[in-house]
Amino acid sequence: MSRADTFTRWGVVASGEGGGRIAAELLAREENPGIDDRIALLNTNRADILNTIERASLDDTSEYTTVFGSKRGVGNNFIAGEQCAREDVDLIVGDIQERMTGADAFMHMTTLGGGTGNGSIPYLIEQLSGGSDASNLRPWMDSVVHVALAAWPYYDEPAQRQFNALMGLSRLLMRRDGQQNADMVLLASNSHLDGDGDQGSYDAVNDKIVTAIDLFISAGREARGVIDVEDYVAQPSNIGAYHFTPAVATGLNGRMLEYELMFDRAAEQTFVPMDVTTARAAYAVVRAPEQLIESGDITETGVQSAFGEWKRDNDIGGAVGMTTLTPKQTRGNDVDVLVLLGGFDLNPLLDHSRDAFETHKQNVEAARQLGNAPEDSISEAHVADLTENLERYVSINAR
């Protein structure tokens, strides 16, 4: 088997308008090694899919897209989004199987404030990993790793979106019976990436997210000390710490800065509000010009040793994780660093949405008592189950 055959082969599954925007930004880049044409763009609304296709400059709409469900848009109702996915689960799973043949891992993309992606992606992850609603899964899918990329709504968005975010995160992390759902959940907060609490540029936020995904995937490509996707998920899952956030610094001077300063620069730019010292898992991906690696200015052992020291300096020396050094074909001394932090205390993020969550929950219950709640609104018992699951997961990882 050639070296190329050992690379992690990714498939992208994006659902909803927000997830489609992130996927389009990724796919519009000139090169996406590891993804190739393993792409599935899902939506209940054909117009939104066409917008995604246009953004990504893809040629054949039918080759990559699936319109599902009996509704043409579900608004912000994630229960309706899940119901639409249930209606057409065989269609969706069949299309994904055809487009993703041979993939080692799926990158599922969604935003957590809305209805289509937030409703369908957690459900589809469960089904694609062997849930009862999806039949005849292909044998090659038994070992597929499911990574979810989830974007948190802006903090000033309406209460329903904050409610959706908490419920969506719960469903990505755990199935309703309390078992783990996604193998790994990557979190990014729009407001935190935008630098303030107000709604700003989705394009600028998505560009940062895609840079992190690119670095994340590069660790399974031509690297010194390859981090395979299994390495990302095995140990964190074993300790119940499988939520992560990227921290990225790009364009660092590889001849001038020490490794630990590079890790510091990255850690100052986490994608969600968090305390680095609460992380229970930590990975580092350093991407450097090939000439700096060949000359010995940047080495695999140097990166590994420095990252261990950096973790000890931040009181997370016992955090599970690995390092890798990835070459890039470019002139100059610019080095890019991804520090992937997992199992951290989620409360600094969740606190931005908890009051709005309670407000929306009370409004739904008031409407239900008056007989005004829609038929596809979430039940009180369902909210209680999802809340309990999330609180249990958060408590395990709180320090």
UniProtKB/TrEMBL annotation:
Entry-linked Pfam families: Tubulin
Keyword Transmembrane: no
Residue stretches making up the Tubulin/FtsZ GTPase domain: 12-193
Superkingdom: Archaea
Keywords: Plasmid
InterPro entries attached to this UniProt entry: Tubulin/FtsZ_GTPase_sf, Tubulin_FtsZ_GTPase
A molecular function GO annotation: GTP binding
Name of the protein in its database record: Tubulin/FtsZ GTPase domain-containing protein
Provenance organism: Halobaculum magnesiiphilum
